[in-house]
Amino acid sequence: MSTEEKSAAPRSLAEALRVRDDVSLAALLRSRPDLVTPVPTDLTQLATRAGTRASVVRALERLDRFALQTAQALAVAADPAPYEELLGLMAGDEGDPAVTAALPRAVALLREQALVWGADDRLRLVRTARELLAPSPQHPSPTGLGPTVREATAGMSPGRIQEILAAVGLASTHDSVSAVSALGELFADRTRTAALLAALPGESREVLDRLVWGPPYGQVTHDPAPHLRALLDRGLLLPTAPGTVVLPREVALHLRAGRAHRTPEPVPPPVEAAATHRPQVVDATAAGQALAALATVEELLKEWDEGGPAVLRAGGLSVRDLKRTAVALDVPEPVAAFWVELAHAAGLVASDGEADERYAATPAYDEWRELPPAERWARLAESWLTATRTSGLVGGRDAKDRTLSALGPNLDRSAAPEVRHRVLALLAGLPEGAAPDAESVLGRLRWERPLRGPQREQGEQREDDLRSRLARWTLAEAELLGVTGRGALAAPGRALIGAPEPAHPAAQPEPVGPGDKLPVHHHRTPLAPAPVTPAERGAATAAAARLLAPLFPEPLDHVLLQADLTAVAPGPLERELADVLGVLADVESKGGATVYRFTPGSVRRALDAGRTAADLHAFLSRHSRTPVPQPLTYLIDDVARRHGRLRVGAASAYVRCDDDATLDEILADKRAAGLGLRRLAPTVLAAQADPAALLDGLRAMGFAPAAESAAGDVLIARADARRTPPRAAPEPVPDGPPVPDDTLLTAAIRAIRAGDLASTAPRKPGHADGADGGQAVGGELPRTSAAETLATVQAAVLTGEALWIGYVNAEGAASQRVIAPIRVEGGFVTAYDHTADEVRTYPLHRITGVAELADDAP
């Protein structure tokens, strides 16, 4: 490419991309990852893909409010528009200093994302974006501006246009084109338009004031009032359809003092602090919440240890089972749904996949329980941060008016991880210990992502409404999980998102001029979470666990026994102590200290699990800092003395007891009538009920029977923990293609450059030109005969020149390549392929044709 061609202004987006360096192309592909999936063959295809409707819509949706306002202003500006015109539309006639300072960065961002191309004197918004943002009666512009005078008068009769010229004091013309141009120039002249408006009655000015900020369309009757007739006669309102008029864009801009937007927003709204706490208090509160979170998840899985609730036919938990879970955890149903979904996201619970399908803990739960507490919490927090399943939707309705159930389908929202990460990042930007004002957080998120299409998610009215609710849920869930404490981000939560330690506010970045390139580190939109590798994510999780570990109290190996048959655990207990105590006593209350209560039923539960009275006495003596109360000793001995005196087995069932008086007492009890008991021997009763029902019935009568095996041994009533087969945690649903890493970007740019070289390199004219076997025109493959192909390739081996070839692979896919032949033998040519940047071998019969490159080819 010659120096003159390089310096010439680009005539298309493809040419604008062609003059970019690799760093700029990498920034484009990183900010719009859909462009690299799959890798384009050349820069022309990249430009075409960047202009498709789906890709442009996605790019516009990821702009912040000011960048979007800039694009909207370009949509109503001339095409192309000089930078000064855009600045006037954004800053107005007075010139807003904040807008003036921020506009170069917004233009640079639009250029980087290939939404705007061209030099500062010829800025062009890509055609698809202009079509999406330009005003029309069906889709009014977000700026509130209507069509230009030229567009509004397109269907007007020439005579009517000449009448308008006469009414505003302009000379008549010989054609409508010049008449419309004269009228447009009049309205664009501030002085002349001000004089024209000053002559109008006050009622006419009121009509213009109602239309000036949009919508610009209004309704008129067949016989309009005089103040409306004055506007119509002067072209200040132009008819667009019967009974409909529009305020021309030039007039509206005059009334707006040149501004396209009523309120430009060049600076993001600040996130304000609602309260401030000492960082130590925040970290301690978060650590307490983290401990409670671990206890809640363990309690949930303990409830489902022997098999949890059944899976609905459509998937998920029933409303009744969710209520039962909420009662068992002593939390509201939405909070219970959060804990259930969190355990599922962490891979700790899943369906067992059996015929009678139920939820149960996974083998990963046993591995998770063996981890140190801080690492267990970090695993939960990471799963929550990256999960796309959204528990806040439970109980709502989907697009088909079906109830959304916990663990059920249709709970994935791809925006959830992004919003969670951004909310925590905004909290990390506040001073240490500062809890944010929720409304200011929502306002900041709306500025960073203002444009979201309606009904982007099934069952949701608006995507921006969903994102606001996601942000509110994030604040509440982060507090439940212990990522925040008293609303402020704790140190482990800061490490979890990879945020730097708090420091003094950084200096403002250097201003960017209108022609400057956006710095590389600005390639991400503000809301997008920083892409991290699994290694980086693991390092962040490990750092969070390290910061949390010192905040956790050391597990206790003792409890405080009290005379009212309760035990107080003043902190978290060692696992073995907690497991045994959970069987021996019932949890009465939770909090900073857990209170356990001993009852005859709980003691019998421990005896059914294989413990003896001596074991229980020794256990309590070993782990109590206070003397074992006498009432508790009596309770254990009394229950143990009666436990097992009755033996129940399968006859269909029988009762065996060495004390025949006890059996007489049972037979005489009216409550035993339903068990179908009859005496077989002085010490044996037979029953029609099954063993389990017989055990429950006798216990309800106040006895303490024990089950026995066919050999007469006591059965230990400790069910084996039910586990599902190995299950993987649910995969998050991505919000579009993933951001490419540096390795992929390097390879993609190299392939695009090589493909562009193959498609644009100049060819020598000669025998390869012509309709029969000539050089390709318009991107077609070159065509030469087999003899010509072989001769040209052999000559290139001797001269070392590069060739342009057309090639069809074994699958029938055609491509163009630039190769430097090395040798030709056996029907194959071995050459260095500039397109693939490697040496390859090609069958000669698959080469459609060859052409020599021009001498000035790169």
From TrEMBL:
Residues 788-850 form the WYL domain. It comes from the Bacteria. Residues 559-681 form the Helicase XPB/Ssl2 N-terminal domain. Pfam families: Helicase_C_3 (PF13625), WYL (PF13280). Residues 499-510 have a biased composition (Low complexity). The keyword Nucleotide-binding does not apply. One of its GO terms (molecular function) is DNA binding. Keywords: DNA-binding. Residues 499-520, 756-780 are annotated as: Disordered. This is DNA-binding protein. It comes from Streptomyces mutabilis. The lineage of its organism: Bacteria, Bacillati, Actinomycetota, Actinomycetes, Kitasatosporales.
